[in-house]
Amino acid sequence: MYIPFTETLTQVIANAQHEARRLNQDFIGTEHLALALLDQEDSEAARVLAQMNVEAGYVRNALLHTMPAGKEPPVVAGKLPMSPRAQRLVTNSIVAAQAAGKAKISTRFLLAVLIAESSGVVCETFRRSGADGAELSHALRGRDVTPEA
């Protein structure tokens, strides 16, 4: 099935793969997706986070402290699978983009569903960084964010 991700979101998912491998983990989790979103400075998600004064470095360091590196590299060759929660978030971002009438799924939709998950390490880390979930969700729905490729 073809999923029309923006080039930027495709790169974020590839970077999440790299983050998981770098930490010797056997799957891509929501934390890996969040780390990859933080690193993609030219994305809609990064622009909204910057507008909301979210300190990406703080969030990155806090997330890395919650994810101890594995002792051995992943045994999986090729693409690592996503955790059930990460897969659900990607699926929900597709649904959200389609509900908004968008032809492509961008990083803003992935970040929006990450934030909407009121439980979990990623959402709690964003809260501790000073981000207000409701304000961040509102900003992600805004029309004034420059679209990504």
Descriptive report:
This protein is mostly helical and 149 residues long. It has one domain: Orthogonal Bundle (Double Clp-N motif). Helices cover 59% and strands 0% of the residues. The protein is built from 8 helices and no strands. The radius of gyration is 15 Å and the shape is globular.
Give a quick set of tags describing it.
globular, mainly alpha, about 0% strand, 8 helices, single chain, about 150 residues
Helices and strands in order, then pairings?
Elements: H1 7-22, H2 30-39, H3 44-51, H4 56-66, H5 84-99, H6 107-116, H7 121-128, H8 133-141
Summarize the structure.
With 149 residues, this protein is mainly α. The protein has helices at 7-22, 30-39, 44-51, 56-66, 84-99, 107-116, 121-128, 133-141.
Output the CATH topology: Double Clp-N motif
Round the mean pLDDT to the nearest integer and report it. 86
Q: How many domain units? A: 1
Q: CATH superfamily name? A: Clp, N-terminal domain
Rg on CA atoms, Å: 15 Å
What proportion of the residues is helical, as a percent range? Answer: 55-70%
| Biggest pleated-sheet summary | none
The structure class reads: mainly alpha
CATH class: Mainly Alpha
The CATH architecture name reads: Orthogonal Bundle
**Terminal Cα span:** 21 Å
